[in-house]
């Protein structure tokens, strides 16, 4: 370790440090990160599919999805590029609701999105009430650059796992790394264990 | 393109500052000597970590500005008004100081000189930094691909790598088009105004040439440029983006 004598913290003092994972800083903005152009899928063309190692694949249209019970949740989010944003408010459908009617032995899931993005996680992480498909942020429809019309929200993992423009989940018996996971980012991505990159 | 497989853990290592270059009033290039560096690919970034006297640590990501062939790893850092790490790196860091570094990171926003497809680089402000790595890599590796850089800056004094870009534009494979958005010096014969659809239509390769496109800059810039490219008919899967901008909006 090298000390930088003239370096001083400009960390916000109005934030409870216990809510900020190691190596993160709190921002009030909402940075945007994505690997390519922003897809623009109108809700009329949008569907959500659960497929793969399941008893039967299921697909919801936009209207069917919006008729499912939804909830508004307030969570902290943590991006691997070091920013965290506290008390973000989202509205959407719990993945517990979407996966409830599906029988599977699978333990892994690969989420897939418009534009070809994918990300993987254990099925257990999204089927126990800790993950949502969200269509609104702060009470307004989710903007395309933030993943609209619908993105995944898995706030207990780094935010690249909360796939933007999500179109479905592939349930898998074997784990399959997603887009950033293949480019050296951590397979699981727990911000509290600072699992940013492979091997962390 | 193959991913960058990272085997084992990316460890923090000490980098010693061996050269500092003021690029603009807000931007400085920091050359680091690293003992345990196994190379990088043009377009990748590193994490930098600072530790204060009281043990407080902060880390941020910075694009690598040097080519894989260069002796040192160079970072070009822009001072953000509300920043925590960047003001220290731009204003306080001295030659001989040490900072912690880990990387290289990222395997998608990268370019290899062995790729002969035309390359279009679209930079807003300090988004030009990873492109300097790609241009230097092209020169050092004797790349055959035609490269065109569209670079938008506020004013002539805000142009990063101005002299180097001027020199590079003398090579037949490299074509550099600069637009100044807010303020142009007397006699300026470059472009004026923001990079928008009309500008890209005018100065980019046509979509039929299927160039590989890289866009880097603040979020709003990248959104505008990437949307314009798609609207003009460039294939979304040939467009790679990298967005930044401090705390974002």
TrEMBL record, chain A:
<feature type="domain" description="Oxidoreductase molybdopterin-binding">
    <location>
        <begin position="36"/>
        <end position="180"/>
    </location>
</feature>
<dbReference type="Pfam" id="PF00174">
    <property type="entry name" value="Oxidored_molyb"/>
</dbReference>
<feature type="region of interest" description="Disordered">
    <location>
        <begin position="1"/>
        <end position="21"/>
    </location>
</feature>
<dbReference type="InterPro" id="IPR036374">
    <property type="entry name" value="OxRdtase_Mopterin-bd_sf"/>
</dbReference>
<protein>
    <submittedName>
        <fullName>Sulfite oxidase-like oxidoreductase</fullName>
    </submittedName>
</protein>
<dbReference type="InterPro" id="IPR000572">
    <property type="entry name" value="OxRdtase_Mopterin-bd_dom"/>
</dbReference>
From TrEMBL, chain B:
<dbReference type="InterPro" id="IPR008333">
    <property type="entry name" value="Cbr1-like_FAD-bd_dom"/>
</dbReference>
<dbReference type="Pfam" id="PF00970">
    <property type="entry name" value="FAD_binding_6"/>
</dbReference>
<dbReference type="InterPro" id="IPR017938">
    <property type="entry name" value="Riboflavin_synthase-like_b-brl"/>
</dbReference>
<dbReference type="InterPro" id="IPR001433">
    <property type="entry name" value="OxRdtase_FAD/NAD-bd"/>
</dbReference>
<dbReference type="InterPro" id="IPR050415">
    <property type="entry name" value="MRET"/>
</dbReference>
<dbReference type="Pfam" id="PF00175">
    <property type="entry name" value="NAD_binding_1"/>
</dbReference>
<feature type="domain" description="FAD-binding FR-type">
    <location>
        <begin position="10"/>
        <end position="111"/>
    </location>
</feature>
<dbReference type="InterPro" id="IPR001709">
    <property type="entry name" value="Flavoprot_Pyr_Nucl_cyt_Rdtase"/>
</dbReference>
<dbReference type="InterPro" id="IPR017927">
    <property type="entry name" value="FAD-bd_FR_type"/>
</dbReference>
<keyword id="KW-0001">2Fe-2S</keyword>
<keyword id="KW-0408">Iron</keyword>
<keyword id="KW-0411">Iron-sulfur</keyword>
<keyword id="KW-0479">Metal-binding</keyword>
<protein>
    <submittedName>
        <fullName>Oxidoreductase</fullName>
    </submittedName>
</protein>
<dbReference type="InterPro" id="IPR039261">
    <property type="entry name" value="FNR_nucleotide-bd"/>
</dbReference>
């Amino acid at each position: 370790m090298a000390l930088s004598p003239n370096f001083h913290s400009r960390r916000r003092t109005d934030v409870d440090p216990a809510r900020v994972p190691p190596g993160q800083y709190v921002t009030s903005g909402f940075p945007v990160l994505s690997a390519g152009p922003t897809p623009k899928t109108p809700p009329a063309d949008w569907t959500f599919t659960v497929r793969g190692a399941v008893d039967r694949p299921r697909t919801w249209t936009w209207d069917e999805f919006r008729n499912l019970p939804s909830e508004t949740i307030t969570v902290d989010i943590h991006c691997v590029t070091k920013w965290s944003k506290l008390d973000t408010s989202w509205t959407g459908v719990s993945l517990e609701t979407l996966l409830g009617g599906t029988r599977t032995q699978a333990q892994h899931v690969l989420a897939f999105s418009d534009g070809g993005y994918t990300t993987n996680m254990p099925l257990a992480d999204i089927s126990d009430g800790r993950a949502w498909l969200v269509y609104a942020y702060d009470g307004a429809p989710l903007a395309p650059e933030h993943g609209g019309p619908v993105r995944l929200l898995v706030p207990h993992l780094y935010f690249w796992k909360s796939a933007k423009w999500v179109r479905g989940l592939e349930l898998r018996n074997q784990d399959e790394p997603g887009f950033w996971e293949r480019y050296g980012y951590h397979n699981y991505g727990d911000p509290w264990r600072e699992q940013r990159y492979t091997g962390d | 393109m193959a991913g960058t497989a990272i085997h084992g853990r990316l460890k923090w290592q000490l980098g010693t500052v061996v050269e500092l270059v003021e690029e603009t009033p807000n931007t400085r290039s920091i050359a680091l000597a690293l003992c345990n560096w196994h190379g990088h690919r043009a377009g990748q970034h590193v994490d930098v970590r600072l530790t204060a006297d009281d043990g407080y640590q902060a880390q941020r990501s910075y694009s690598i500005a040097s080519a894989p062939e260069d002796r040192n790893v160079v970072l070009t850092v822009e001072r953000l008004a509300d920043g925590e790490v960047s003001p220290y790196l731009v204003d306080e860091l001295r030659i001989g100081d040490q900072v912690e570094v880990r990387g290289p990171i990222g395997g998608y926003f990268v370019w290899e000189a062995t790729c002969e497809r035309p390359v279009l680089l679209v930079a807003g402000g300090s988004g030009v930094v990873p492109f300097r790595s790609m241009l230097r890599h092209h020169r050092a590796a004797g790349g055959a691909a035609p490269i065109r850089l569209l670079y938008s800056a506020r004013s002539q004094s805000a142009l990063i790598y101005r002299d180097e870009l001027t020199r590079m534009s003398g090579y037949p494979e490299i074509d550099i088009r600069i637009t100044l958005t807010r303020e142009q010096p007397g006699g300026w014969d470059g472009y004026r105004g923001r990079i928008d659809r009309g500008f890209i239509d005018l100065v980019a390769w046509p979509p039929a040439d299927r160039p590989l496109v890289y866009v880097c800059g603040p979020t709003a810039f990248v959104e505008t440029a990437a949307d314009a490219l798609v609207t003009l008919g460039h294939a979304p899967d040939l467009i790679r983006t990298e967005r930044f901008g401090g705390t974002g909006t």
